[in-house]
Amino acid sequence: MKGTTLQETAYHEIKNKIIRGDFLESGFTSQNQLAADLGISRTPIMTALQRLQNEGFVKIISNHGIQILGLDVHELEEMYELRLALEIFAIPKIVNLVTAEQIEILEEIIQDQKKCVEHNDILQFLKLDSAFHLQLTEVYGNSLFIQTLTNIRERLFSNPYYFRRKEYQISRYIKEHEQIIEAIKSKDIRQAIKELETHIVNG
User: Which residues are in the HTH gntR-type domain (predicted)?
Assistant: First the structure.
């Protein structure tokens, strides 16, 4: 049990470091460095890295270290196409099922995003962007949709270009989120689809 716990801890801590952008400058790390940073022995670190390699976050290069993998243009396009297909498909059911409490949560996320703009906190802003879209998907209620979209967002976060591109667009994203919410509140499925599609395509 202890070994499993250490492996899970190592997995989540390393993934968080990737998502947080800790390796953006070098693009590399090592088992020894990760073990020292996390205070965890090499065995659970290696198990965690193998799992992250299977998920496409890293590449283990024998005798050289750990390469942090980004996404090429084709992979980015595929991920956005999948996002678009899943989220657009869910909109009619979301419009019909969403509650006042869920709308309130979405609006609170938008307000928190505005605070991030004031403090120039791009990382927290993007985490809230993920929370906004996952909250919409949770209204739909399909656990596979939620897991797939979570995986997509995590992979996008691991790409250095994602951060550089987003920091210039965050104010526009807030406006687009507000327009999506207004369409959903009005029970206007066609407009909600239009606003969401525009938002994702702009990404």
Answer: 4-71
